[in-house]
Design goal:
2 copies of one chain form a homodimer.
Chain A: E1 14-19, H1 30-37, E2 41-44, E3 61-64, E4 67-68, E5 71-72, H2 76-90, E6 92-97, H3 107-116, E7 121-124, H4 129-136, E8 149-154, H5 165-171, E9 175-179, H6 185-194, E10 201-206, E11 214-219, H7 223-229, E12 236-240, H8 250-263
Parallel strand pairs in A: 1-6, 1-7, 2-3, 2-6, 8-9
Antiparallel strand pairs in A: 4-5, 9-12, 10-11, 10-12
């Protein structure tokens, strides 16, 4: 009797970082969906809408590796190692990340980690909430006569502090968008007050593009109170700038201050 | 003989601003494709990849309303009027714009124009080239230890000049992304030189995400010459910042300057 051989499937490890966009499962690109459809493994974050997993093959391994500030279930190092292990074991790993992989997403660290194991890795951009979430509220990050630029800053750096760049941003004429800044709102607002911008329009948008979306519009000196009143919670983005005055809810605010100014 | 009546289709005018993304027809969102599929009319810009029109119904009216700096075929006012006229005549107009509608896209002006005719208008965000084009080159706009923010500025304002915000941006520690700035490259480079940033890494990327993509990586004091040598043409984006040093082409540049420094 001749010896039997089993032919093992040759595993070709590869990694695709995929931006899942701001939350709405339709706000993902065609290219991202195609990558998800052919994934053997999907490692996904807390900010990824789980409906997006429906694009994947039923046989794909789906692993939640979410971490939220203050509640680490997986460290970045854990995620990196898991990503490489799954690629070597199963083949094509899609690393699905909220927003865009390179906007405070630590995507480049994952690319380097993959490269250290000689695993080919590419990235598919996603809609960053920094632009798309204000846009869905019809707040344009740029608008002729109001803003010629926008500056996107993290509210929480590696050390847990607000970014030093925020001091400069508060001074600038750019539309300032702060991601992961809700917990530091008071401190951030203070920077704008220090620049004399007490009346600058501000919007805070929670869970933009999803069913849980909530928006609060005010000015620098009222926004902390408004956010508390409306019970806005993370994830939320902050938008500081004259462009916020274009939001429909801003009209009554403008009229109030106009009336106040006329009384005085 | 009884009189005959013909029943006319009731036109329900509406307008959807749609971001077409950076160029690759797969880098458009599922939501955008769905809107295009049900459009009666599509008004599209120069920076929109025409392959995207294949998602549309064959019966949809497709009109090119492109304008490039220095070669106006349609003014913004022409586009606004056309958009409203088509909506009233045919129904659902998709206004298809390169990138994101609100990133130097004058999208908000179109929303206001539609509102003045009481035509319902919404916007579907698109991938802005400011983030996605560097990302596809594996240049992350943010990266721990290198950049805690990115600042996106127009190289060509309403008056045709570079934005005043660029002076401040050149001074900041943000990754600075300039859209529509290629023609002003010399002037923009001067701003960084004035801040003593002669060695700051710079990338110039033409037609990012398309078959015509070209990239040049250098530093502030060499980039103008490199761009000329390689014949880079518009549309192109400029990226100034330490994150550009992560691009694979930057390694030899770093080694050259290191060797030079050791000789001295």
């Amino acid at each position: 009797m001749s010896k039997e051989y089993t032919v093992e499937r040759v595993i070709e490890p590869r990694i695709t970082l995929v931006g899942a966009g701001p939350g709405d499962p339709e706000l993902i690109t065609m290219k991202a969906v195609k990558a998800i459809q052919v994934a053997d493994v999907i490692l996904y974050d807390a900010l990824v809408n789980e409906e997006i997993l429906n694009y994947a093959s039923p046989s794909a391994v789906k692993v939640y590796v979410g971490k939220r500030s203050g509640n680490h279930s997986y460290s970045q190092d854990d995620v990196n190692k898991l990503m490489v292990r799954y690629a070597l074991e199963f083949g094509h790993v899609v690393r699905l990340k909220g927003g865009d992989p390179f906007v405070f997403g630590r995507g480049y660290e994952e690319l380097i980690f993959a490269a250290n194991y000689s695993i080919p890795a590419t990235a598919i951009p996603g809609l960053s909430s920094s632009i798309s979430v204000p846009g869905l509220q019809q707040i344009p990050v740029t608008h002729r006569g109001l803003s010629e630029s926008f500056w996107v800053v993290t509210g929480t750096t590696a050390t847990g502090e607000i970014s030093n760049d925020l001091y400069e941003a508060a001074r600038s004429k750019a539309t300032v968008v702060v991601l992961m800044g809700l917990k530091k709102l008071k401190k951030i607002v203070k920077l704008f007050e220090n620049e004399g911008k007490h009346k600058l329009p501000v919007a805070v948008i929670q869970s933009g593009s999803t069913d849980h979306e909530k928006v609060v519009v005010g000015i620098v000196e009222t926004i902390v109170e408004l956010v508390e009143e409306k019970g806005i919670a993370a994830p939320a983005i902050l938008v500081f700038g004259e462009v916020v005055s274009l939001h429909p809810s801003f009209q009554p605010i403008r009229e109030f201050y106009k009336a106040l100014a006329e009384e005085i």
